[in-house]
Please model this.
Amino acid sequence: MPVIKTIEIDETRCNGCGQCVAACHEGVIALVNGKAKVVRPDFCDGLGSCVPSCPQGAIRLVEKAVAGCPHEATHRTAPHWPLQIALVSPLHSFPEEELVIAADCTAFAAPSFHELLRGRRVLIACPKLDSNIAGYIEKLATIFRHNNLQSIEVFRMEVPCCFGIVRLVEEAIRRSGKNIELRVTTVSVEGKVAETTETLSLKHQ
Model:
C-alpha cells in the first residue's frame, strides 16, 4: 500500500491561534470550535510548511499508508520535490551529501542543466524576484544545520543581480555553523556553462 507524508494535529496542545491556517496554502487546516483541525486531508502536499508556524508544537509530519493510486503517492514523495526554496520545509530531510541550489533561469538558459545535476537534489529560487529572500537565509541555515551536507554547488546566471543567490547561500552556511564546501558555476545569457567552477572558503561566525 502506498505511503504518503501528511500532517497530524494534537488538539490538546492547540490554543486556536490560527497561524497554521494562514501558513497552509492548500486549505487543509481550519479552525473548528476554537481548535485547528485537518478538514481536507487529501489536499495536503506533505511539505510541512505549517509545522514551524505552530507556537505550541501541536503539528507534526507523519507517514501514512493510503489506498489509491500508487503513481500519485510516489509523485508526492519523490526525492526531487519540492524544488522551490519557498515550498521546502526547514525540517526537510536530505539524505544526500551534495546539494545544488540554482537560480530559476539557469534551468532554462543551459540546455545541459539536467546533465549538470548528475542526479543530485536541487532547490531553486530567484534572488531578484522572490519576495522572501531574507527568510530563505534562516530556512536554508536550518536545513544545513540538521543535515549532513558536505558540499553545495550554486548555479547562477552571469547577470549581476543573480549573484544574490550566492550571497544567500554563503550567509546560510555561516549561520548554520557547518563546514560545507561551496562551489559556484556561472551560466552565460547565451546558455554556455563556465568551464571552471569557483570554490569559496567561508569563515563561520
Summary: Confidence is low (pLDDT under 50) at residues 69-78.
